[in-house]
Structures are given as structure tokens and as C-alpha cells.
Amino acid sequence: MYFTDRTEAGRALAAALTDTPALGADPQGPVVVALPRGGVPVAVEVAAALGAPLDVCVIRKVGTPGQPELAMGAVGEDGARVVNQTVVDAVGVTPEEFAAVEARERAELARRAAAYREGRPPVPLTGRTVLVVDDGVATGSTALAACRLVRARGASRVVLAVPVAPHDWTSRLSGAADAFVAVHTPSRFMAVGEFYRDFRQVEDGEVLAALARAGRLRHPEVDTHELAFPTGPAAIAVPEHAVGVVLFAHGSGSGRGSPRNLRVAERLHREGLATVLFDLLTPYEAEDRWKVFDPGLLGGRLAEATRTVRHHPPLTGLPFGYFGASTGAAAALWAAAEPDTAPGAIVSRGGRPDLAQARLPLVSAPTLLIVGGADGEVVELNRQARSELRCESALQIVPGAGHLFEEPGALETVADLAAQWFARHLAVRRPGDDRAGR
């Protein structure tokens, strides 16, 4: 077993694909095409990591009579068809039996294609590098059909990418794609599912939700402007149809320009969350270490900034939350206990919630504490702080990450965890807006 579930597998595959020469040099970047249903959760992570559009390639396995999981072929959109003659001969399937199964699968294929596309045309593939993604390859029939289909739709380069495949998969599928990428290629291989702890069936609703999220939230239009604060200008970013706003709290004077905060903010924008990045201290004040570790000062300024933001026209009426890093986490918890702030959620990254110990029992906002696994002292401080919280809370430890989350993939994990927490607790439906609840 290699993967907890398809989401983890997708992140591992995305890491393997980052900067790989297999993707070629397409200046437009790749298009990610998933094989539903199981390939979609994997492809979502890949598309997000590459900043690529996501589409589906609807393929149906033609299973042998009595052994539906054993593919004797596959059929796809646009009339794509693959026959695995080796399996057909070994099982002794007659042409009539094959045709009967094929007819059933084509009917189901048409139903799914109509449901998944909802009237939308496929993403144009002409002249593009196309990354065909599934949750794994076994016989290769469906992967072969998918590669043929995207090639017929004009793809100039086809890359087949999966989390797991048999060790000889490239020879089995020779010629199907221009390049092959797999995270694991074990010599012993019975079925794709044996390499996942959770290999439950993906439902149509999950596919639809993933496609909607990828299509509408991947590259949102974001309005950016500044707002004057006593400690300097705040950077405001408001995606179209914003469903909430997150104020970033940082105690060292680098909140507005911190590359780490900017990367997290970009991830939140894809969830429809506006962001406010600013400094709790002036550059001069940040040189005074006492002020950096003063939760009352930092928390008071965050509370005042919150009042300003809540009356700022583009953000008025939106539920809000706090994202606090290091001592900024203490500021967030301190401000959350003020009677007139009431944030909807709090996320702490490598935070020092212990500095706000006196106010922890007063916090009512759902609070997520994220700590690097290699940051031992801070892990323990967060464990103790969580025991004193009386609100909904969670502690997420990122394995191997240090205090600044500089390790490969660590900050992306933080951003995903924060986005999921805020999306769960802050999303609100506005009149005429269909984004909430996706």
C-alpha cells in the first residue's frame, strides 16, 4: 500500500510531474484530462499544482462476462474503441458477447458524458500538451483509449500519468503516449486498489463538484487595491463573488510582503475568499522584540483592523476569519476574544497560541493549529494550547516540516489545510451566487 487515498496520490503525482521534462516545452502549459470517476480526485491535485485547466475524458471499461473488473477492452467518447484481444482469447468471449457488453457500456458512457459536461464543450486540445491522468493502470485498456481520444482531438503531445502502474506498463502501452510518468511501478501487481488504503468508489456528485470547482475557481478574477492602516497600507485582494474574507496577522512587520503569506493567499482566492495582508507593527516597532511578543498590542491592532475591514465596501457583510503566523497566531486568538470581533474561523501556522493563554478559554471561533513535525517545542506548545480551547479545534502536524515550512510541498499543505478550514466555516451564499456549498 502506497497511498492513503486518491487525493494523497494526486499530490504525490503532482510532485513527480513538477518540472519534469516529460511535459515538454508547451508555452501554454498542459491541459489535464482525467478519466472519471476514479481519476478525477487525482487529477484535481495535479491540475491545481500545475495551474492547468481540468477536463474529463469519459471512457468505459468493457469487462469480461462474469468478471467485470477484468477489461477485455474499452470504449470512449467520439467513438474511441480498444479491444484487448489477449484477454478476449484467454476468456473465450464470442463477438456477440463482446458486442452486448459494449452496447451497455456505450449507453452508460453517453449518460455520464452528458452529466459531467452539463452542456459545456470539451476543453480545446488542438496543439496542446495533454496530461491524461487516472488513479492507476492495470491492463491499460482504458488508458489506451483515452490517449487515442485526446490525440484524435488534436493534442500535439500526450503524457500518461498515474500514481501506480505495473513495472512493464510502458512496454504494454508503447506508442500510446509520448511520455509516461508513474510514482510507483511495483513488480508485484494484482490490482490498482491494493495500493490504496481508501479506494472507495467515487460518486458522480464528487466528479461534478470537482469539475465545477476547477472550472470556476482555478483562475478567479481578483480585484486588488490598498487600504490605509495606522501601521501602513494593507493589500486587499477580492475575488469575484467572494464568499468570505481572511485577515492575515503577522507580528514581525513582514505580513504584507511575506512570500509565504502571499502563496497562502493565492490558494484562498481559489476558494472565493478575499484576503487582507498588512503589518501589525511598523518597521521601526518590529525592531523591538518586546512588541513582537506582546499579544495585547498585536491583538488590539488586529481587532481595530477588523473593524475597518468590516466597513470597507467590497467586504461589508462577508464573514471573516484570521490567519496567524508565529506570534500573529497569538494576536488572532487575542482579538477573537474581543466582544465585537467574533471571527468565523482561525488558522494558525507555526503559531505561538500559548502567548494568548489568558484568552484561550474565551475563543469561540473554530480554530485550526498547523505545526511542522520537526518543530518539536512549538508542537508541544500547540498541544497544550489546544487543551485550553473550549471551541471546535484541530491540530494538524505536517510531517518533516520546520518552523517556516520551507521543505518541498510543506507550505502547499498548509495552504490546502487553511483553505479547507476557511471554506468550511466561512462560505456564505449571496443573492444570485451559486458558489457557496460547492
Automatic annotation (TrEMBL):
Residues of the signal peptide: none
Alphabetically ordered keywords of this record: Transferase
Lineage, broadest ranks: Bacteria, Bacillati, Actinomycetota, Actinomycetes, Kitasatosporales
A GO MF term: transferase activity
Domain Phosphoribosyltransferase, residue spans: 13-167
The protein's name in its UniProt record: Phosphoribosyl transferase
Keyword Ribosomal protein: no
